[in-house]
Specification:
By secondary structure, the protein is an alpha/beta fold. The chain has one domain: Rossmann fold (3-Layer(aba) Sandwich). It contains six helices and seven strands. The strands form two sheets. A five-stranded parallel sheet has the order 4-3-5-6-7, with helices on both faces. It has a two-stranded antiparallel ribbon with strand order 1-2. The N and C termini lie far apart (about 35 Å).
Amino acid sequence: MTHACPESDWFNNQFAGGSVAQVCPQAYETRKQVAASTKSDDSQTGMRVLIVDDSPTNLCVTGATLESMGCQVTSAEGGSQALEHLEKGSFDLVLIDYHMPNMSGPELAAMIRQRMEDRAPRMIALTAGRSPEILRTCRAAGMQLVLNKPVPRNQMKLLVDRLSEQA
């Protein structure tokens, strides 16, 4: 989802996990609406999640949803920024947009797998499309799952709960 907002209107938004993303006012309002409409869960997973997406709106909405579930969220607007975050800290889960400029989701996942080997976090692809080719590409890159965007809140909650139990 792209917003037609002048670049001069964009501002830095700091997530609870400490990461900062450039967002436009419409994306920020979307995140505030999601946060207000999603009741905070009683369970606080503390799961460290890195979200990689070139869309500020997707970063905001997914981040707010995960934060309401007690996750510590860090965001990256692309593959290079994601790799920087992975060098500085550890994550339990990396949610990666399939289609990104400069470095695709599968390219990023393969690079993470190559650099981190058996220390690589779980990686899940987020995509608006689903085809056998996308599934094969993601699996070959080392991603464990492919989810269609937008991911319903109840599906995200189920995923977070299951991954928290396995940790």
